[in-house]
């Protein structure tokens, strides 16, 4: 009825009146994004497919382009103005502002992160790295520049050019660290960035991305 020519687009004003008269409430954050996206195109229209993508938590290519080009405006206050947040929500907002450059990206991240299922992959990898480091530190009696110890390269976990046939070494070297400085830096990045990303994208995506980085390294 609203799109008699079946173009897939309707005007922002028509969409706004439809939202106000609709009996089922929609996510305000997603409405912000949809209106901002409509304000970014030449015709100022709402696209049906973009609405479907947002409601189903998918980010369409046009939405990504709108973010990349900066062609959108926020009808609401910025995320920093939201008050009454608990410690955990404030931490998520802090991560969003530290990592993401665009306000729309920050809002999308803030409202899309999930605690269930919990981000176990990055936490498990970090914990394993700490345990392995402590074991080798106690075994070698060396906590800084462990690679200088003659026994370090004998570890079955280290990548060794002479043992390329042992395929597991291409992955297990991620558990070995030079010293406390490298371990601390890696653990901090994994927990501060990896865990929040896993809460948005899930264990499969993040584990694939992380392991791909390990193999590339």
Automatic annotation (TrEMBL):
Enzyme Commission no: 3.4.21.105
Annotated transmembrane regions: none
Domain Peptidase S54 rhomboid: 166-217
Mode of membrane association: Multi-pass membrane protein
Top-level taxon in the UniProt lineage: Eukaryota
Reaction(s) the record says it catalyses: Cleaves type-1 transmembrane domains using a catalytic dyad composed of serine and histidine that are contributed by different transmembrane domains
Cross-referenced InterPro entries: EF-hand-dom_pair (IPR011992), Peptidase_S54_rhomboid_dom (IPR022764), Rhomboid-like_sf (IPR035952), Rhomboid_IM_Serine_Proteases (IPR051739)
One Pfam family of this chain: Rhomboid
Similarity field: Belongs to the peptidase S54 family.
The name this protein goes by in its record: rhomboid protease
């Amino acid at each position: 009825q609203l799109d008699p020519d079946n173009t897939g687009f309707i005007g922002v004003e028509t969409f706004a009146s439809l939202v106000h008269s609709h009996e089922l409430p929609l996510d305000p954050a997603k409405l912000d994004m949809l209106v901002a996206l409509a304000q970014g195109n030449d015709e100022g229209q709402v696209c049906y497919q973009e609405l479907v993508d947002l409601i189903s938590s998918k980010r369409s290519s046009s939405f990504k382009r709108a973010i990349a080009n900066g062609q959108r405006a926020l009808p609401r206050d910025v995320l920093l103005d939201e008050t009454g947040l608990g410690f955990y929500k404030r931490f998520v907002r802090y991560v969003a502002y530290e990592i993401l450059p665009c306000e729309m990206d920050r809002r999308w991240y803030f409202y899309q992160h999930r605690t269930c299922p919990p981000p176990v992959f990055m936490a498990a990898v970090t914990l394993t790295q700490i345990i392995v480091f402590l074991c080798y530190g106690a075994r070698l009696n060396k906590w800084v520049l462990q690679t200088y110890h003659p026994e370090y390269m004998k570890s079955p976990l280290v990548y060794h050019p002479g043992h390329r046939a042992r395929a597991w070494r291409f992955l297990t070297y991620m558990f070995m660290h030079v010293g406390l400085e490298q371990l601390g830096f890696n653990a901090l990045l994994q927990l501060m960035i990896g865990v929040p990303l896993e809460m948005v994208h899930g264990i499969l995506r993040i584990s694939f991305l992380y392991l791909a980085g390990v193999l590339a390294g």
